[in-house]
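Dear all,

This email documents one entry for the complex benchmark we are building for the journal club exercise. For each entry we list the sequence lines for every component of the assembly. Then comes the predicted three-dimensional structure of the complex as a token string, followed by one or two observations. Please use this as the template for your own entries, and keep the labels exactly as they appear.
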Amino acid sequence: DQQVKQNSPSLSVQEGRISILNCDYTNSMFDYFLWYKKYPAEGPTFLISISSIKDKNEDGRFTVFLNKSAKHLSLHIVPSQPGDSAVYFCAASVGEGNTPLVFGKGTRLSVIA
Amino acid sequence: NAGVMQNPRHLVRRRGQEARLRCSPMKGHSHVYWYRQLPEEGLKFMVYLQKENIIDESGMPKERFSAEFPKEGPSILRIQQVVRGDSAAYFCASSPSGTPGGFFGPGTRLTVL
């Protein structure tokens, strides 16, 4: 029973173009969403988050969009850079306090120079 | 300004042995989460602890696994009588009060022979 789904295991994008990573969730109680980036042999690093009261949050090259009615969120990276090549995890929680995260399986992004 | 520390980074055990994984949270953080990542999977929540208290252990197997976060010293995840299925990367995350997500350590990769 996967509550957070990342249906694309991998994505290849050319340097300079936009990368769009998608995430779907099934639990309507989720109201806080995060994206993490992970390099091999390292822990996940927080990228950006969004609360369910918003539909967009932007931080530099990274923008997260939330569509509550579709239970869908996406991470846009523009322009994509070779250093962005990593595994990206979508995560969700109930509430913005200290609650455990539910992670998707990740999408491996390769940015080709 | 050290981040979350985990040791050992790699641990090899034979079936039936015990594994002890340590997590030192960031300075000032009193909340610790343990997650497990099986190969080709996302991170799965195991246990959430505050100093001297287990807050939520709903993700931890009922047998062979235990966790503690003493008043002094690191948080410990203990796996008794390890089996091959315990082979995974174990990550801890720490956060100050009221912050979701947290900061992840580099993980401990457990291999059970």
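Observations: The two ends of chain B are 36 Å apart (CA to CA). Chain B has a mean pLDDT of 92.
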